[in-house]
Amino acid sequence: MSTLSVRLPESLHKNARAYASQEGISVNQLISTALAEKLAALAAVDYLEQRAARGDRGRFEAALAAVPAAEAEPMDRKPG
Known about the structure:
Helices cover 64% and strands 0% of the residues. With 80 residues, it is mainly α. The protein has a domain of 55 residues. Helix 1 packs across helix 2. It is elongated.
């Protein structure tokens, strides 16, 4: 485990203390969890962008054209 000093605006620190207390965890744990969640979201965006860059519209349309036309199942239909 490593140590990191972070300067926070007082209002942000106050909110962090309040939410950490509400959750029954330390401010350090709250910040670690929040950072982990943010990094996971950024990694997901990177992954999706990389997958999209490999996409091929022509191959997608060819695969879609190979799907037979069929009525939607009742449970898949839009109500109304």
